[in-house]
Specification:
heterodimer; A: MetI-like fold; B: six-stranded mixed beta sheet; 10 helices
């Protein structure tokens, strides 16, 4: 049998995909790369500046502050939403009309556009006319997200928890439904406590959906822009100004395209790096005996 | 350790059962004595697993009582009944090692760690799980997984009973035999009540001292393998036990006995008297293929039959023949000559069983 290797016309079939990826991802990204290493005044005046923009951006205290805020925010979001989502999924009825009703109720926040969510909480939390803010103040809590940093953070976090815990809960719910009844029966025979059932049966079998849930929630919360922008506008001061907002100010507000492009690439690499680290650690732990 | 008594027990999966067809378990009374090795034998869907789950407490019976040592346990969970059960398909906790899997039921009951270690090692020794004892359980083969599953039942030596729900289905044939021997040894060593569900009569008779045959949600006979073979008290037991099953013929009454297709079979006086008293016309006679007598030539009471074919199974032969329109089988020793074409057979009276409405008519005098 002779295998012909010199006639691989089939590769041409890959061309459309290649073109699509090139135009949708690689070329736009290259444009950003292009901006990040040059100082461009107009079409005919562009000077190569090497890593200057990167050096400038990395020394910029605004970037440091918002990066730190961003990490605190993303980890707080994960720390609240993941356990809460698991808890909600565990408490949901498994069958009947109540089960369907819960699924619908949980899905509703996921269907609301970001800036609508921002507006809802912007009004809901207002101390003078908002139901939430007014009630808190009436109860004697001094609450004002527009002037108090702590309150602003609490409100932004609460808004995210309200918007996205459902996603984690729905993922976990589907994961829990996939556990065969025999495991619960065996655990009952083995006299396992509720905690042991959770720790040794449910949690290990939720692992794959939780990996997806954590990755999605990390990436989304790390890139969050619209909701805090609508709710607090980044304030009071810069206290709720996250990375993407700093970037927007730089690129559109000040039109510093060079540093903004360098910033974007660093931003992109951080998301990629953290996600990769997380995913690799989990899969590595899985393979270990 | 306990004696398990099922009292007027019945179970239906529907909330409002309207007739006998709605019952997975029809009303039954049964006692599993402390320390016995029992098999629960029956075809798929006869209610074996349902009955097992009711005993273990995974399922609450809709009617009747389950008593452990005369104490009602209907409302108790499997945990409080202190019962072990091994399922048909292996259930392992795959985030744990084999050791932790085996230790799990003991640790849940807060057994001190030195005792856990001793007990787990003992069971791992018996089940030959030592080489993989510290491996993650999820990388095991199907055989090993089922051994781990069984091991979790066996580590608890204080249990009321261990229930096995067709535990060897996924196991290789040569290992099956070995594991069955092991279970038997463990039974002899610890004297724990064991109930073993299976649809394989060979498996049932090698494991159990006494077999309960289940059919249509009822235990139709409870006896030693020999009793089931020699005097099956339901046509189903006759048909299900033995290889091949019992020859069963529909018959009608006639002078001095019963008849089918114009052939008359004489019955003892006692059976004839009994037959005169019962109103039912659902009559059958049955005889095991092993007990059909084949003569070398014509005799007074032998029927002349047409031999259809013979199967030689190496250690014995099965002869299929026709008597009128009835197809019957006989089992012959390997060295017996099989007659060609025409043969003469008779049915020895002491092995001929009479069934009215599918149930055996007992003869007291025997």
């Amino acid at each position: 049998m002779i295998i012909k290797t010199d006639n691989n016309k089939a590769w041409w079939l890959v061309l459309p995909v290649f073109l699509l990826v090139a135009f949708s991802a690689i070329i736009p990204l290259m444009t950003v790369v292009n901006y990040s290493v040059q100082d461009i005044f107009d079409q005919n005046n562009a000077y190569f500046v090497g890593a200057d923009w990167y050096r400038e951006v990395l020394r910029d205290p605004r970037l440091h502050d918002s990066l730190l805020r961003q990490f605190i925010y993303s980890f707080s979001v994960l720390a609240i939403e993941i356990p809460l989502g698991i808890g909600v999924a565990l408490m949901m009825p498994t069958k009947g009309r109540m089960g369907s009703l819960c699924l619908i109720l949980l899905a509703i926040p996921l269907l609301i556009p970001w800036n609508v969510v921002g507006t809802i909480w912007q009004i809901f939390g207002r101390a003078d006319i908002g139901l939430f803010g007014w009630t808190l103040n009436a109860l004697g809590v001094d609450y004002n997200y527009a002037s108090n940093t702590g309150d602003a953070w609490a409100t932004v976090l609460l808004m995210d928890v309200w918007h996205w815990t459902s996603l984690v809960a729905l993922l976990c719910y589907s994961g829990l439904r996939a556990i065969p009844e025999a495991f619960y029966q065996a655990a009952e025979i083995d006299r396992a406590s509720k905690w042991a059932v959770f720790r040794y049966i449910q949690l290990p079998r939720l692992k794959s959906v939780l990996v997806i849930g954590i990755l999605l929630r990390f990436m989304d919360s790390f890139m969050i822009y619209t909701e805090p922008f609508v709710l607090t506008g980044g304030g009071p001061g810069n206290s709720t100004t996250f990375l993407s907002q700093t970037l927007t100010k730089m690129a559109i507000g000040q039109f510093d395209l060079g540093p903004a492009a360098a910033f974007s690439l660093i931003y992109f690499l951080i998301v990629l790096l953290v996600s990769w680290l997380f995913f690799t650690t989990i899969t590595y732990m899985d393979k270990a005996k | 350790m306990a004696e398990i008594h099922l009292k007027s027990l019945a179970h239906s999966y529907s909330a409002k059962p309207s007739g006998p067809a709605d019952y997975a378990i029809r009303e039954m009374n049964h006692v599993w004595h402390q320390g016995g090795a029992y098999a629960l034998l029956g075809p798929s869907g006869c209610g074996k697993s349902t009955l097992l789950n009711i005993i273990s407490g995974l399922l609450a019976p809709s009617e009747g009582e389950v008593l452990f040592d005369n104490v009602r346990v209907n409302e108790l969970s499997p945990k409080d009944r202190n019962i072990a059960q091994v399922f048909q398909f292996p259930v392992i906790y795959d985030s744990m090692t084999v050791f932790d899997n085996l230790a799990f039921p003991l640790r849940n009951a807060k057994v001190p760690e030195p005792k856990v270690r001793a007990k787990v090692n003992e069971v791992a020794e018996i089940l030959e799980l030592h080489p993989v004892l510290h491996n993650k359980a999820k990388n095991l083969t199907a055989d090993e997984k089922q051994k781990v599953s069984m091991g979790r039942g066996l580590v608890r030596d204080d249990v009321s009973a261990i229930l096995f729900d067709e535990p060897l289905t996924v196991i290789d044939p040569h290992l099956k035999w070995k594991l069955r021997r092991k279970l038997k040894q463990i039974h002899e060593q610890f004297n724990i009540t064991m109930v073993y569900v299976t649809h394989d009569q060979l498996e049932a008779s090698t494991f159990a001292d006494k077999i309960a045959v289940m059919y249509g949600g009822q235990i139709v006979q409870f006896g030693t393998p020999r009793e089931l073979f020699e005097s099956p008290n339901h046509t189903f037991v006759g048909f299900f036990i033995g290889s091949p099953g019992m020859n069963l013929m529909e018959v009608r009454r006639c002078e001095g006995g019963v008849a089918f297709n114009g052939f008359k079979v004489a019955l003892s006086d006692e059976l004839n008297e009994h037959l005169a008293l019962v109103p039912s016309d659902n009559l059958k006679i049955g005889i095991r293929p092993e007990f059909v007598h084949i003569w070398d030539g014509p005799t007074d009471d032998a029927f002349e039959v047409q031999v259809k074919h013979t199967e030689d199974l190496g250690t014995y032969k099965i002869v299929t023949f026709e008597l009128g329109e009835q197809t019957l089988k006989a089992r012959l020793d390997e060295d017996r000559e099989v007659p060609n074409g025409r043969a003469h057979v008779s049915f020895p009276q002491q092995w001929l069983k009479l069934y009215v409405d599918e149930f055996l008519v007992e003869e007291q005098a025997r």
